[in-house]
Amino acid sequence: MLDNPLAITTSSLGLHPSHSLPEKVHAAASTGFSSLEIVYQEVVDYGLSQNPVLDVFNAARAIAQLCRSLNVSVLALNPFKNFEGHHSPRSTRLESARHWIDVAVALGAEHLQVPSQFDTANSTGDWQQMVQDLQQLSDLAASRSLRVAYEAVAWGSYINTWEDSLRMVQDVDRGSFGLCLDSFHVAARLWGDNTVAGGMQDDAWPALEASLARFTDSCQLDNVFYVQLSDGERFAPLLSSQHRFYQAGFPPALTWSRHMRVFPLETGLGAYLPVAEIARAWLVDKGWKGVVSMEIFDWRMRDESRRPMDNARRGLQSWQKLVKALE
């Protein structure tokens, strides 16, 4: 029986401006989620919606108080992006990091989530520079009793697989720096393709199976801080310059991620990625017992009528369906 603590991201609970952060907290709590990943911009937006207006720190404290009153913890503040290896001065980036860390502390968050660098034009792939940047970020976070959860995104410029992110964790060599594993990024990098008929890469299954076998054999679970699960909706029509979600210069996987990520196994909504296979490797074969977080970005949630409670129920039903499939 899988009994992992279950979290959900605020982006998974609604994407319309009327879907307020407090409404999302209430929805998550009443549906049984034990913790939340909170998007930074939603804290800002909540503060701006108050009368009088709250700055981001007081907004974060108010949300933290609400979470405590509902017995919901804050798993992470996200996404602190394009940090390591950037051409801008490290001192400037660390000043930004201090601000984010202060907000995370005000929220009572356990983690600052950091996606791997994808601003290719303004960054370097120098591995040692990235290691040193992330060491300083980790030390800064640790000084405030915060951990950094590092996520290899499928469109990352230099790190886009779990293997590369694990190598970074090992080289940074800080107890406050570990992995956030996301099923979407593994599937989109190795298996799925939203630009071709069939929606799969040529060597999809062998590549995925080999990667999951390597994970089971070689990744120590103490390097993992938490796991995220989501599925991907099949593109029909295929992604092209004529598609409604197309944005020039965006990698196909990024467009997929921002618009057509649904909860695991929502096949009625077009979900088709091998989430069950990935989850089986992580949760059953490897035996991950820690937090599992649902993180999706579904275009349907931009509809005002799809309230956070509806979306929270979708997330819980998805988890229950996945557990049944794995058992």
Description:
It comes from Aspergillus versicolor CBS 583.65. Residues 26-320 form the Xylose isomerase-like TIM barrel domain. It holds the Pfam family AP_endonuc_2. This is Xylose isomerase-like TIM barrel domain-containing protein. With 327 residues, this protein is an alpha/beta fold. The protein has a single domain, classed as TIM Barrel (Alpha-Beta Barrel). The chain has eleven helices and eleven strands. An eight-stranded parallel β-barrel has the order 1-2-3-4-5-6-7-10, surrounded by eight helices. A three-stranded antiparallel β-sheet has the order 8-9-11. α5 (127-142) links the parallel β4 and β5 (147-151). α1 packs parallel to α11 (308-326). The longest helix has 19 residues, at 308-326. It starts with 5 loop residues before the first strand and ends with a helix.
